[in-house]
């Protein structure tokens, strides 16, 4: 089965309230990451039609601060699929108070796995790019997948040392 990327596209917006901010009146990174994980899971579920689990967060690049009173806009789309895995890109924008102009505040790539009711991986549909704007993300996915696999190998090597008592 093949699904168009636009079928997974998801958008979520929220106002940044005081409880979401640090002492600089900018959004806590952890709060933002929670919202990103949520929109990415929605995007992955729309694509796969299954329950999903977060497998990895490749990176989160914070480009501009999101301030108290801003509206944070999260856009998710599936940019690559494996057998049971899906790479999701989440674009983070901010709308300043009194302005409807969106400015890019950051983005990240995450990997989700489609699972059955027992938590076992299941096949997910392949993707078809239906946007010239997104074609670059599809074309560059193999590079990100290779880096992700290399990082996972390194992480597993590190885990054997970190599992031990540190001090």
What does this 3D model show about the protein?
The radius of gyration is 17 Å and the shape is globular. It is α+β, with helices and mostly antiparallel strands and about 170 residues long. The chain has three helices and seven strands; from the N terminus they run E-E-H-E-E-E-E-E-H-H. The protein has one domain (about 1-160): Thiol Ester Dehydrase, Chain A. The chain is about 30% helix and about 35% strand. It is an enzyme of class 3 (hydrolase). It comes from Nosocomiicoccus massiliensis.
Question: Which percent bin holds the helix content?
Answer: 25-40%
What pattern of helices and strands is seen along the backbone?
A: EEHEEEEEHH
**Percentage of residues in DSSP E strands:** 35-45%
The level 1 CATH classification is Alpha Beta
The CATH architecture can be named as Roll
Indicate the radius of gyration in whole angstroms: 17 Å
Give a short account of the largest sheet: 5 strands, antiparallel
Count of helices?
3
Mean pLDDT score, rounded? 93
Keywords: Hydrolase
GO cellular component, one term: cytosol
Enzyme class: hydrolase
InterPro entries: Cytosol_ACT, HOTDOG_ACOT, HotDog_dom_sf, Thioestr_dom
């Amino acid at each position: 089965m093949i699904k168009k990327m636009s079928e997974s596209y998801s958008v979520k917006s929220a106002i940044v309230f005081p409880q979401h901010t640090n002492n600089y009146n900018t959004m806590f990174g952890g709060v933002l990451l929670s919202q990103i994980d949520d929109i990415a899971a929605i995007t992955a579920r729309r694509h796969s039609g299954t329950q999903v689990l977060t497998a990895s967060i490749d990176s989160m690049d914070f480009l501009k601060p999101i301030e108290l009173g801003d509206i944070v806009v999260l856009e998710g789309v599936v940019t690559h699929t494996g057998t049971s895995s899906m790479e999701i890109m989440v674009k983070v924008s901010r709308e300043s108070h009194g302005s409807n102009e969106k400015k890019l505040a950051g983005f990240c790539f995450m990997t989700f796995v489609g699972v059955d009711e027992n938590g076992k991986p299941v096949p997910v549909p392949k993707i078809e790019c239906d946007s010239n704007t997104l074609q670059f993300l599809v074309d560059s996915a193999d590079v990100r997948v290779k880096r992700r696999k290399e990082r996972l190998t390194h992480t597993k090597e590190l885990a054997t040392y970190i599992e031990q008592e540190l001090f």
